[in-house]
Amino acid sequence: MARLVEVRPVAAYLRALNPDLPRVVWLLQAGGLANAFGNGVVIPFLVIYLHNVRGFSLAVIGLIAASNAVAALFSGTVGGALADRFGPRATLAGALCIMAGAFSLFPLIDEPWHAFALNMLAGLGSGAFWPSQSSLLARLAPVQRRHAAFAQQRVTMNLGIGLGGLTGGFIANAEEATTFTTLFLLDAATFLVFAALLTRIPSPARPARAGGPGSYARVLRNRPFRSFALLNTLFIAVSIAPFSEFLPVFAKNESAVSERSIGLIFFLNTALIALAQVPIAKWQEGRRRMGALAIMGVLWAVSWLVVAAAGAWTTGTTAVAVITAGVLVFAVGECLHGAVQGPLVADLADPALIGRYMALSSLSWQVGFIVGPAVGGVVLDAEPLALWPLAAAVCLVGSAWALALERGLPQAVRRTPHPEAAIAVPEPG
């Protein structure tokens, strides 16, 4: 464990990948790597724990997963305001401690209400985590290199999740409930590692506020941002949410894929992101952002059709191979999302209100994680093979929406900037 989260070697390695980013950005991303490792240990196996170990139905589990996002709706807006008022570093540290406490109690779950309560507590921390972490990254990174910083964040987090999933696959065993205790305690420890690392990162100065007092009403008056957040909600509900919540249990129960193979599938997905995210972000420089999201939606639709085919016609080793092919296609779409979503939000934001912008951006994820699991759990429980073609169809709707949305974006933010040219950020409104 110590070797996996040792700060200095990891930070030096990450900095070598993109040396024009400041050292403090790499320190932040090293903490994110440790934290993501713990999340990766748990994420692929949480539904398996609740369904196969604790005996909860998939419909109930879908609602449990959605409860996390419901709690995060509240804490995300509060966390964004706190990040603007007291600084993102302090807000992030508090969120990490809340999540550490929640996941350390997950082994005690015995009834569905226990899972609801603890998942909502974790959601309170998660909701504040994302806007504060994104605000801190946006303030630490140079404006013209934000897309590189957010892309590299996607690399470190996915690398951590992949290594965690691979590790968790060797630990988790649905026949032994105590193996999941190990997973949850390991995850809780990594939240505390990240919180400790924040003491070595300076709190950035707050930008001067112009144009009246800060409020979410001012953010919501920014029509391009509002439209983009709605589009992101759609994509998350039919892509990242079912990938995280339902793909592992679908693979295990419909195609007889083992926990170890599930961990391997997640590792290969995240390993490809770690390898491809920076090249794809560089390829995206100077190109249309909404065009990239349209391609992303098509790739995600293809990946879900491949997963559906695996569940319908394959089992065991063949299923592992087919599902892996699908999730590798999915990973390329994730790289396109990583190169566009976070940087575009930051470029649309008023710098003095970036915590609130990131909070509402995170809210788009949380709403997606409410709708996706709540609807997907019911569909998966009733007809497992129907979920994936339905999600694929909605992904294609999102692609068309992205192309239509491009006309509403300010001209200056429609394309990803080149590193040598500072982006002209328009006044929000």
Describe the structure.
With 429 residues, the chain is an all-alpha fold. The chain has a single domain (2-200, 221-413), classed as Growth Hormone, Chain: A. It has 18 helices and no strands. Mean pLDDT is 86; it is low at 1-7 and 422-429.
Write a brief caption for the model.
By secondary structure, this protein is mostly helical. Helix content is 78%, strand content 0%.
List keywords for this structure.
single chain; 429 residues; mainly alpha; Growth Hormone, Chain: A; 78% helix; 0% strand; disordered N terminus; disordered C terminus
Question: Mind describing the biggest β-sheet?
Answer: none
Assembly state of the chains shown? single chain
* Number of domain modules: 1
| Low-pLDDT sequence parts | 1-7, 422-429
Please report the distance between the alpha carbons of the first and last residues.
47 Å
Number of strands: 0
CATH architecture: Up-down Bundle
Which CATH C-level class is it?
Mainly Alpha
Structural class, by secondary structure, is: mainly alpha
Tell me the strand percentage band.
Answer: under 5%
Helix content: over 70%
Radius of gyration: 20 Å
CATH topology name, in short, is Growth Hormone, Chain: A
Going by CATH, the homologous superfamily would be MFS general substrate transporter like domains
Order of helices and strands: HHHHHHHHHHHHHHHHHH
Count helical runs: 18
Global shape: globular
Nearest-integer average pLDDT: 86
